[in-house]
Each structure stands twice: as C-alpha cells, then as structure tokens.
Amino acid sequence: MPSAPSGRPLAAYAPIGDGRTVALIARDGCIDWLPLPDLTDLPVFARVLDEQTGGCLELRPVDDFRTERRYVPDTNVLETTFITDAGSVRVTDALVSGVAGRLPWAELARRIDGLDGDVAMRWCVQPGTSLRTASPWIEHTQHGDIVRSGATAFVVVGFEHGPAQPDPDGIAGPRLDGSFTTSPGSRHLIAIAATHDEPLHIPDPHNVDDGIDRTIENWRHWSQVFSYDGPWRDHVQRNALALKLLIHSPTGAIAAAATTSLPESPAGGKNWDYRHAWVRDLAYTTHALVRFGLREETQAALSWMLGTIRDHGPDVHVMYTLGGDLVPQPHEYHVPGWGGIGPVVTGNPAGGQLQLGVYGDLLAICRTYVEAGNVLDIGTARMLAGVADRTCDLWRNPDSGMWELPEERHYVSSKMGCWKALDDAVVLAEAGAIPGSADRWRAERERIRLWIDEHGWSEERGAYLFYADGDELDASVLLHAPSGFDRGERMSSTIDALADELGAGPLMYRYSGVDAEEKTFVACAFWHAEALACVGRHDEAIALMEELIALGNDVGIYAEMIDADDGSAWGNVPQALSHLAFLSAAMTIRDVVPAEKLREKT
Predict the structure, then answer these.
(1) How many domains does the chain have?
(2) Together in a domain, 149 and 249
(3) What is the DSSP letter of 471?
(4) Model confidence, pTM
(5) Residue 181 reports pLDDT greater than 70
(6) Quick one: pLDDT at residue 602?
C-alpha cells in the first residue's frame, strides 16, 4: 500500500473543492489529485499523472468491497458508502469552509461513519514529489509530525483513526498510515491541513468534524440562492455546483479546468494545463451566473476580468493566470502522465495568440451585465469603446481561432465573434453605457456580415465553413445561433452538415479531420442542442439533451472529451466549458421552447 491506479478511468473521479483548490476522489475512495493549498500549486498529491511518485490519500476497507456514492444534495460534499460482507461504512469527504467563508489554509476532511457490522478500515497518506521537483520529508515538531514538500507543509490529524508510527524511509518517500474498525454508530475522522510558504495551523480534529457539517450548510445556502426554474432542474443544479468548484475565490477568476495534462488523445501531445482563466470561458460563465441571479460571483468575476485586461492592455489576451498575470509558456516535467501518456506540463502556449472571437466574448458579457441592471465604471466603458474600435481595425486579419490552432487563417467563427462584438457595442452605446461611434460600429458590423456571406458560406456544403473559401466545417459556428448572428435556414442547414460530418451519435468532434487525433468534444454536443432550439427544432433539441445527460459520469461530472466508441472520459476534468455548455443549452431551451413541451422535464 498504496497500490497503483493503472490508468484509472477519468470518469471514476468526483471532484470536491473549497474555492481555492480541487480534489479528485475515485470510486474506491482514493484521492489521486489535490494541489495544496491552491489549485495552481505544484500538486503534492498527483498520482493521476505519476503512479510511482505522484502521491495519494487512500481510505478503504481491508476486505473486498463495492461502493455506492453521491453528493450530499445541493452540495459539493461527497458521500461514498463501502459495502463488504462484514458490514458497511459511509465516508463523507469535504474540503472544509470556515465560519466566515473560505479558510486561510486548505483543510481536507474524511469522516467515516459505521452503518452496520464491523468493518476493518485502513488509510494511507503518501505525499508525492510535486511532479518530481521536491522530495517530501517528515519533520518532528513539539506539536507532532509535519510533512514538508518544497514550500508546502501539511499535517495529518484525526480521532479514532488508529495512526501507526510514521514511516519516513519508504522507497516512494515518507508515509503516514493507520487502521481501525467501525461498528454501528461509530465515527472516525482523518484530516489534513496545508499551507504553502507560510505558517501552518494545526486544527483540532473535532473542529474539523464540525466543519464538515458547516460546509454542507454553506453549500446548501448557496444552492438556495441559486435561481433556476426550468427543465432538468436537478442536472442544472449539479452542473452549476461543478462550475462553482472552478471559481477561484481569492480573485474571482474562473479556471478552465481543475487539472493539467490529462490527455485528449491516446497518442499524446495534446496535453494542456487548463488551470488558468480564459476570457472566453469566464465570459460564458459570468453570462450564466447573471442568468442565475448570482450577484457576488458575477461582480467578482467581471471586475477581476476587466481589471486584469486593463493591467495587461491595450490588447485583450486569450487567458490569464488565476492571480491575474500573463500565462507563462509551457514547462515540461519528467513524469509519465495519466496512463503513461505525456507530456505533463504547466503553463500554456496559446496565451500570446490573436483570437478575434475574444472581443465578442468580452463585449457580450458586459452587455449582459448592463442589461441586468448594473452600471459600468468610466474606465471600463472607455476600454470597451476601444475594444470595439480595435475590432473594426483587426477583423480582416487572420487569427488562431477559437481552437487555438497554429495555422492563422480567416476562421469564420472568429468573424462571427467580431460581428457579435460590434453588435453589442452598438447596443451599449445606444443605451449610453459606453462612449464611441455607434455609427462606425454599425457600418463595420454590416461589412463583416457581407464578408461572411461571400467567404464563409458554402452553397455546395449548405453550411458555414471552418475558414474562408475552404471546404471544412467547424462546430464552433453553432455558438452563433444563440449569439443572434443566424437563427434561420442557413444555420439550420449548417447544423445538419455538422451532424453528418462531425457527429458521432449524440456527440460531436470540434472540426473536420480532428477525429483522427482526439475524442469528441463534450461542449460541441451541447452547442448542437442549443442551436437546434434556436432555429426552432425543439423536439430534436430536447431529445439530444436527454441523450447527453446520460453521458456524464455517475455523479454528473463531465470531462473535456468523450470517446464515442466506449463512452470513456478524456481530457482535463472537471471541464468548465463542458458544464457551461450544458447550462447554456438548458437555459436557452427553457427560454425558447413552448412550456407544454418541457413540463415533464422540469
């Protein structure tokens, strides 16, 4: 012990979080991913990427078992029930929150309640090497044993958990473990508290136990504030809770995913670090938050994004770190990766790309914010007017497109994004929310539409194209049914062409030819459903949503990609864009489909 996961399926993981970091818990109770105390820290527990020295936290019965699990309703607290021949136990896992919100340290709690029979349990805390950049050690202090790995320090506490003498000399590094036996009504607790490059608070384990209940109540309070009345309400709630895990509470930024380097392809190479804030994803998320009536997250995310863009302007970058800096170029680590598929990296190479669609994303969320009854500050209003002018000047240029491709081309969805930017700028100017020349933006908007008509539409394909005057298709044009660019016959025809060429059952690939390199992209399938609703094909939209809901894992979590052949999850998880696409599709269907068709889905 611990045993290797042998490329544990990514769908086996359920995330929990505290607004600062995320843990991935497998069905057998093993935690194979947990950066401490921040999501972007080098992970002390990362066995999902490095089976030998990645580190993990194990908790399981000694004898053979099967498991059942669920989230405590309306929370991101996980319950796993272990069932053995001798009896059963329930493990409640939480990243604990404090009385006044997020704790200033990370605190992972694992409560074990005996249900029936007597069940022998064992646990192990095996710190990892932080992607082989640090060698952990145990420091003996007057207050107990502290584990250190580089600048990260943590302590293991508990009650009735039977700790053994720590083993500082294991071949994989130091280890803390123990064992105990449950009985009906018994309670045991194991917890870790961690800081990075700062003093370490050692919590009272009974306070930690109380903190689990407080955390459940805090999540339930958030869910009560959350406002959605429409189809698939329970699934919408779960997707919103999954998305909430990725909101970085210290700044308001929103991570694109909770992990790095989980592969998009068995061949490797497409392994990216998504623990950064994309302007696109943040704009989509904030749009959803406004529609849900979540005021605090909306204000924090938008204020952070606008301030960060101004700090690094005048051009809008594709992404920023969760702390508001520019994203560094990739750094590769000498670890094997999930299932031996590398590389494992931090950073991201797309930070410096030109992506014209970002301008549309930025102006769209600011329009949504204003139309929800809010007011822009003078600096933001002037900046947005400058972004609109910049869109006028740049839209004729090639860019890297939404998919961050190395080939700069005239991507049609990028031009649609520029159309959207100017359309929203006109509305904001006419409402008096931003200064600038609405007449100029209106005229340039119409030039973009004429360009798309001439270069971005194929009568032969009956579809909007991937890039100008080409023959290939791109699922991201589906985003411009809900954007308002086209909700008519051309978009309906494009939907059919995309389904024929990129579809794989209910799922969809990103663009022509990419099926040879990677799996289907979950968000594209939900964009498909949303676009169907926008063009009036309501029954098809509802039926597709029903199929897609069934493709989440057992607790409703979506990774970035799904293998259309076997349903396995691929890519980083949980993926913001996947859950965002579900939420947007559900809300759009609620808004445009007659209520009588949706009554049984509510």
Answers:
(1) 2
(2) no
(3) S
(4) 0.95
(5) yes
(6) 57
